[in-house]
Design goal:
The protein is mainly α. The protein has one domain. The chain contains seven helices and two strands, in the order H-H-E-E-H-H-H-H-H. A two-stranded antiparallel ribbon has the order 1-2. A hairpin with a 2-residue loop joins strand 1 and strand 2.
């Protein structure tokens, strides 16, 4: 009997957690209370506008990478499909339920596909000239992706006897510290 290679699953779990925390910082900064958004605009409108775009593009690419096929040409993609393919031969692996969750994750990718294709992967002239709509990215759909990915990881790890895989681990993130520093700076500036 060959030993099951769990390294891809572990790496995928680490990547999902990393990306989720990046999403949490993005959401904290740009989709929190209006007062927070006003603070960012008061301090450095252009900078935070650029940061918003950069972080949004990274999130869209992150979801795209995690929902890529197992391979493209000669390349192997560390994705849900790759881990699914690698574990499918193990009798404990919940193939059908895992496949359903992967399908749900891919549905979120479909929501992001136009944005990725027209704004990130290619500088689409029709979009740049305002002749074509590049779609809209709804942050709650990205959040939905991470919760589906978490359900996949928890299901698989439970069936393989590895324990839970929470993606939302407690801890302070840099966005919170940044906002606190900006608030302090604004109060100090008014003195």
């Amino acid at each position: 009997m060959t030993q099951l290679d769990l390294q891809p699953l572990r790496e995928l779990a680490d990547e999902v957690v990393r990306q989720y925390h990046e999403f949490a910082e993005f959401h904290f900064l740009f989709y929190g209370p209006q007062a927070r958004v006003d603070l960012l605009n008061a301090v450095a409108t252009h900078f935070f506008g650029e940061l918003f775009g950069i972080m949004l593009d990274r999130l869209v690419l992150g979801v795209s990478k995690l929902t890529d096929p197992a391979g493209s040409g000669d390349r192997t993609n560390l994705s849900l499909a790759y881990v699914h393919k690698g574990l499918a031969h193990d009798a404990r692996y919940p193939k059908a339920d895992a496949a359903k969750l992967i399908s749900q994750a891919i549905a979120v990718r479909t929501h992001l596909e136009v944005w990725r294709s027209k704004r990130i992967a290619h500088n689409d002239a029709s979009v740049a000239l305002g002749l074509l709509d590049a779609g809209e990215v709804i942050p709650e759909r990205i959040k939905e992706f991470y919760f589906v990915a978490e359900r996949y990881l928890n299901l698989v790890q439970d069936k393989l006897g590895l324990g839970p895989c929470p993606i939302s681990t407690p801890g302070i993130h840099g966005a919170d510290e940044l906002v606190k520093a900006l608030k302090s700076a604004m109060v100090f500036e008014k003195l």
